[in-house]
Structures are given as structure tokens and as C-alpha cells.
Amino acid sequence: MGLKKMRNHKGFTLVELLAVLALLGLVIMLAGSVSWFGNKQYSSQLEEVKQQSDVRLVLKQITKDVRQADSLEVTNNQLTINGVIYRSNGGLLLRNGQTIAEGIEDFQAEPTELGNGVTLKIKSASDTHQLSEISTVLYIRE
User: Mean pLDDT in the chain?
Assistant: First the structure.
């Protein structure tokens, strides 16, 4: 008898398997890169929010001190309120020598024209070098 031809065509060829593996690899790489990018954005946003929160907390503390103050003095970007000294040093904002905020790019304190208040500008920079600046004018309550 002669050779019988294979009539059973079930299964996959090697080319089909390689094509499926290549497509599956692309899908996995795409999903991984989307996940990595999302994680990177999350970390960046978290750092930025933390930095802004620190600046707002500092401003809240200074506002509280100014409103309760009997005396206020500004010299060389150093703010003295009833003996409490606020100053910037090497990216840190210090209150009586203790760190209250990190990543401070600039701290400016200038007396108001009448001398009964202070104009504050606090600029912070995160590791991504995104600047966030808050400025306000605070007055001593009479």
C-alpha cells in the first residue's frame, strides 16, 4: 500500500507559536512600562505634595507666632518673633536652630512699610526641581 496522507490537521505550527510568543512578549512589555510609568508619576506627585505640605505647615506656624507677637524684627532674611528665630540654612528652614522644613530653596522676610508686619516668601524645590512658592503678608494683632 502507499503512504497515507495525514488528514489530522490539529495543532499549531512552529511559526504560529513563535508569532504568539512575540505578541505576548510585546503585551507584557507594554503593561510593564505602563505600570513603571504610573509608579514613577505617583512617587513624583507624592514628593511634590509632601513638599507643599511642609511649606504650608511652616507658614501656618509662622502665622500663629506673628499673630501672637509683641515684637517682630527682620534682619538679613532672619525673622525674629518674640525671641523665636526663623532662618534658612543650606536648604533647611530652622526655628530656633531646629529643622522644621527641608528642601527650602529660598526664604525671604521683609518688614512692612509701617513695621507692624512682615512679608514672607518661601520657595521650595523637590528632587524633581519643581518649584513651589508661597508668599504672604502677616501683621501683628493689636
Answer: 85
